[in-house]
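A protein record pairs a chain with a discrete description of its three-dimensional fold. The following entry can be read in just this way:
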Amino acid sequence: MKSLLIFLFLIINAQEETRPECDILIQQAIEAMHQNKHAKSLEILTKVQKIAQEKGWHKELFLTLNNIGANYYKLSDYGEALENYLLAYDIALSYLDTTQEMVVLNNIGILFYQENNLGEAEKYFLKAYTLAHKNTDSFKMGLYAVNLGLALNSAGRLEDARAYLQKALPLLQNHQNVLLQGRYALAENYYLSDEQKNAKEELLRLIPELTTLEFIEQKASGLLLLSKIALSEANIKKAEEFAALAQNPHNSLDTQINIFQHLSNLNYREKKYELASKYKDTVIILKDSLYHLKSSSQFEANRVKFAMRNYEIEMIEKTKNYEAERKMLYASFSAIVFIILVIVWTWRNAHIRDKQKKIIAERNQKIKMLELESELEAKNRTLAVKALNMSNRNEVLQEVVQNIKEQVDLSNKPEVRKYVAILNKQIKKDKTKDDFLIHFEETNHGFLSSLREKHQNLNVNDIRFLSYLYMNLSIKEISSLLNITPDACRKRKERIAKKMGLQETAELFPYLSHI
């Protein structure tokens, strides 16, 4: 709806001989803005703004701020636009007459209208209209009354809207462009008021007059209203014709979305579901394009703002005393660089020394740890070998005793019994366990005590088994030491792991390594 509102850019003529240059620059900036060269326009306006501020030229300052706001309005950066309009409004209130005041009030109203803040839009349009009425400016009264009518149409206050529009049209007879927009607003009011006949008649008279590209949006919107009216009259063919005429490649994305949404609804009503779905897909694509367009506009606005900030900084820098500041800057910079170099050099040397010391200490510590690990591994391996040898010896002795017992003629002889008793004493099963744990504790300081402290439910056999695991012995080696089968050894490992609260047996060795 942006194009349906009348926007004032304040194209002026030079009136004061002392300010012709500023007036010309402002006109150049406005022309650049109409060509969408916003960076160039804002650069010129910023230059004039600075001159006007320095000279105390309030009218020129008002014009620059108002047109800076207009640039940001066209870039859809409404926040920045409003900020500049409010600054222009303050200047108009303080130093200028009501002519400038009502212009910027109208522009602020348009901003709020675009943000769909209809209450604020009405307030500012009404202020502008009141000032125009006070000044008996018939053209401005008609212009602001049209904007009021559009805002009140959107707000659903149709009677109030019609009252303003009926006041506006007689005042705009000599201003054809604004009059056409006022007539469209009145036709829209008729349609929203369910006065289909009046709306149809007004639109049929109006649309043939909307021949220029300036009124492309009003023409498309009017044809869309005629299509809706035809649909309400059950004249489907006419509704389709008007909707087809409304389509134009120059239409805004918002208008195209409204048209294709209407076509989708129209075909759905006629049970042409495939075509309705096709139009619905087009609506989705157009909405996505609109989103990207708004994002692009915002990016362009930010880029322009960034360029303007840089330009403002450059202008400020040019006003300074270059030579004096440069000398001071060079002297200060040289001193700072020298101090920084000294600090960096000192810090670097200290850092290198600390780093070297740290590396040496880490290497020494690593060597020491490797030596200790190697020594511990050797002791554990020796202890394991001794345990295995003892186990093998006991196995051999047990086999000998068992073989003797199985031979009845030998086992009954006193001399043989005597030797069997001696062999049984040599087996030393219990003592081997105790000796192993004692030697293991001496080699691995604190391991067994920490293990018993954390897991008090472990018995001696469990601790012995875990000691073998800690020594990184295989299942086969452990089963040989314990005189059990490898399967029995695995089951014992699972049982002990559960006893210790571990989910998997694979977690046993890493867990034991960190005790």
Remarks:
- The chain is about 80% helix and 0% strand.
- Residues 1-17 have pLDDT under 50 and may be disordered.
